[in-house]
Design goal:
Elements lengths: L1 H4 L15 H23 L1 H34 L10 H16 L3 H19 L10 H5 L6 H18 L7 H22 L1
Helix pairs in contact: 4-5, 4-8, 5-7, 5-8, 7-8
Length: 195
């Protein structure tokens, strides 16, 4: 009984099955297809490593630049109040004439959009540190240093343009008149402040 109980077990050998011929042919084909890439990676791995390091550095630089721009915008939004942007009287009157000409042709959307673009230009000319190339009209309307009347006028004009562009609702004469009055108040307030 002892001999049976302590006898070593025979080692198990799973049955060997050969893979199908089509699978072996596929593996040989893939091996020949990928072999040049493997040799190149093996021989030129230092080039691949340098490329990966350069890509990582570019990604880090892009992230850093984005964070810097946000930090700069945050500082601009948190900066103490300063004098309102001063608008040149001749430029303001010329703009109103151009916008009135567009409105007279019934092109109210374009006229209000022109007011918005020139308002952004006035702000950028007076305080370029307040704006970045990616500043949106909503962000500009939230700048705390912008005087309340100017902010209110700018926000009204921006809202009309947004409604025209994004809500796909054509502006009417009443919308144009509201935007024009807002710009005129904005320009006159700043012209009075600039004297």
């Amino acid at each position: 009984m002892r001999e049976i109980q302590y006898a070593p077990l025979p080692t198990y050998k799973p049955p060997q099955s050969k893979p199908p011929e089509w699978l072996e042919a596929l593996m040989r084909f893939l091996g020949k297809l990928i072999e040049p890439l493997g040799k190149w990676l093996g021989a030129g791995w230092s080039v691949v490593e340098i490329g990966l390091v350069v890509l990582a550095a570019l990604g880090a630089a892009w992230i850093g630049w984005t964070l810097f721009q946000r930090w700069r915008l945050t500082l601009a939004l948190a900066a103490p109040a300063t004098a309102p942007p001063v608008i040149d009287r001749a430029a303001a009157l010329a703009l109103l004439e151009d916008a009135d000409a567009l409105a007279a042709e019934g092109r109210f959307d374009e006229a209000v959009h022109l007011l918005l673009q020139r308002s952004v230009h006035h702000i950028a000319a007076a305080r370029p540190d307040w704006l970045s190339p990616s500043s949106t009209a909503r962000e500009i309307g939230l700048i705390p240093d912008l005087p309340a009347a100017a902010r209110q006028a700018f926000t009204l004009i921006a809202r009309e343009v947004e409604r025209s562009l994004y809500a796909l609702r054509a502006l009417a004469a009443d919308d144009w008149q509201r935007a024009r009055e807002a710009y005129a108040a904005f320009a006159l307030q700043n012209l009075e402040a600039g004297r």
